[in-house]
From TrEMBL:
<feature type="active site">
    <location>
        <position position="201"/>
    </location>
</feature>
<dbReference type="InterPro" id="IPR003812">
    <property type="entry name" value="Fido"/>
</dbReference>
<feature type="site" description="Important for autoinhibition of adenylyltransferase activity">
    <location>
        <position position="54"/>
    </location>
</feature>
<keyword id="KW-0067">ATP-binding</keyword>
<feature type="binding site">
    <location>
        <begin position="205"/>
        <end position="212"/>
    </location>
    <ligand>
        <name>ATP</name>
    </ligand>
</feature>
<feature type="domain" description="Fido">
    <location>
        <begin position="110"/>
        <end position="258"/>
    </location>
</feature>
<dbReference type="GO" id="GO:0005524">
    <property type="term" value="F:ATP binding"/>
</dbReference>
<protein>
    <submittedName>
        <fullName>Fic/DOC family protein</fullName>
    </submittedName>
</protein>
<dbReference type="Pfam" id="PF02661">
    <property type="entry name" value="Fic"/>
</dbReference>
<dbReference type="InterPro" id="IPR040198">
    <property type="entry name" value="Fido_containing"/>
</dbReference>
<dbReference type="InterPro" id="IPR036597">
    <property type="entry name" value="Fido-like_dom_sf"/>
</dbReference>
<keyword id="KW-0547">Nucleotide-binding</keyword>
């Protein structure tokens, strides 16, 4: 019988269990210096997918070449390359600032100055080659819009521009309350914060990219891996945002929780866990070049792969045990 899709609450529970395990057994998120490769790959993936959500056409390999080597591979419009450069600069700033805050922070989760800095880092490179056609001198990257925004096709209307400053002051105050206990699931509180930023639409352009970067700044500061919304999830993401516009934060919260858990298992856990440490099978699967999660789970259930079942039903194994299983599997195949 096919397994049904896990409930939203199960998705939330799995995320919190995985984060607790990361903090208690593996020492939490590594710093950029401790695990440069992890953050570099997250950096590439986020810059690619987040700009692609806004229409950028660079493929992942072109993004890597551009960010790592400064090479503009392909024949795309200069504006597209600068969109990726700006996002890459901002994401690198976000990860570094989140894990190792500078002296200008006061201990809050977020400040207005950081909001402005994220937008400036994101938009300044592209603004130099393709500024917004309606921007005034007071609307350069990092400064609030001085225009009203037309209603969105789905019906949401951002507030008039004179209200932006006080709305953003209130928004930052709400963000700084995220560390407090609340009845709502944490992922849905994040969803509300993210959606409210987009509803305010504080800048003339670049609000989507800045909003996702700010979401990741908050996540990493709170000890979670960043969330990456993949470009093939664009329709689901926008639908979840529209639901959130109407006060239903569940779909967006679930999307965020799944994205964070995916990055945790795909990038973080394999790098911080030694080859002998027990980790979820999802952290040991490679859907492209190695054993798939379904195959590892089947091998564990049949006793062919050394593994243990956690109280919550998650199968745990180690890199050493998976390597041993694969070695014996290939030996049996040859025989």
């Amino acid at each position: 019988m096919a397994r049904g899709r896990p409930s939203r609450q199960t998705v939330y529970d799995r995320l919190e269990e995985a984060i607790t395990d990361l903090r208690t057994r593996m020492g939490g998120l590594p710093s950029p210096d401790e695990a440069e490769a992890i953050w570099a790959e997250l950096w590439h993936q986020e810059a690619h997918h987040s700009t692609a959500l806004e229409g950028n056409t660079l493929v992942l390999n072109e993004v890597r070449k551009l960010l790592d080597e400064g090479r503009a591979v392909g024949s795309k419009d200069l504006k597209e390359y600068m969109e990726v450069v700006g996002y890459g600069n901002a994401a690198k700033w976000v990860y570094g600032q989140a894990l190792e805050p500078g002296d200008w922070t006061n201990g809050d989760l977020l400040s207005i100055q950081e909001v402005r800095t994220v937008h400036h880092e994101t938009m300044d490179p592209v603004w130099r080659v393709a500024p917004h056609p309606h921007a005034t001198r007071a609307e350069t990257p990092g400064r609030w819009r001085q225009h009203d925004i037309a209603p969105f096709p789905e019906g949401m209307t951002p507030p008039p521009f004179p209200e932006v400053h006080h709305r953003m002051t209130d928004w930052v105050a709400a963000v700084n309350g995220l560390r407090q206990e609340a009845e709502e699931p944490f992922a849905e509180r994040l969803a509300q914060v993210h959606n409210n930023f987009e509803k305010i639409h504080p800048f003339l352009d670049g609000n989507g990219r800045s909003g996702r970067l700010l979401l990741n700044l908050l996540l990493v500061r709170l000890g979670y891996p960043p969330a990456i919304v993949f470009k093939n999830e664009r329709a689901r993401y926008l639908k979840a945002m529209r639901k959130a516009d109407g006060g239903d934060y569940g779909p967006l919260g679930e999307l965020i929780a799944r994205a964070v858990t995916n990055n945790l298992y795909k990038f973080v856990v394999p790098a911080v866990a030694g080859p002998a440490r027990l980790v979820p099978l999802a952290s040991l699967a490679d859907e492209k070049a190695g054993p798939r999660l379904r195959a590892l789970r089947a091998a564990a259930e049949r006793g062919r792969l050394r593994a243990q079942k956690a109280p919550n039903g998650t199968w745990l194994s180690s890199r050493n045990w998976v390597d041993e299983y694969l070695k014996n599997k290939y030996r049996r195949t040859k025989e």
